[in-house]
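Hi Prof. W.,

I finally got the Response regulator prediction working! I wasn't sure whether to trim anything, so I left the full sequence exactly as given:
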Amino acid sequence: MWLYVMNDRLHPRRILILESDAAQAAQIAAGFQGDVAVTEVITISQLEAAWDFLRGQGEYQTAGKPDLILLNFAPAQSQSLLKTLKADRQLRQIPVILLNQTEDAEVIFQSYLAQGNCYVLKSAHQGDLKAIAQHIEAFWLGVATLPTH
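And this is what came out:
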């Protein structure tokens, strides 16, 4: 458990999972139940609702900003959302991890070109999804130092 000792600035975090498949989103969310303090895991499966959350509009007026975003919509939607996030002065500092099942080199290249912080190949197997979330939690919330809002 040395990973968690390295970051002495641990405090509760908000994770936003933008995933078009609700069942997979639930499996990923279940993986964020480890030793690192996570205040809240929010899952959103619709692009319009994702924008409302990120902009604090509609039912999300008091939601606050996430500390980390996991993004998996169709590649074109994910790329568009990522580019818009990184162009927004209020949102661009939030790390975005792209999850996708495609190994297409061009999609991966475009994800990094659009300033995605990480590209993770996603398995459809539920045990793998939980493990991926646990690894993300260990690194991004246990080792990395994230910006504060």
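Confidence is low (pLDDT under 50) at residues 1-9. Does that look reasonable to you?

Thanks,
D.
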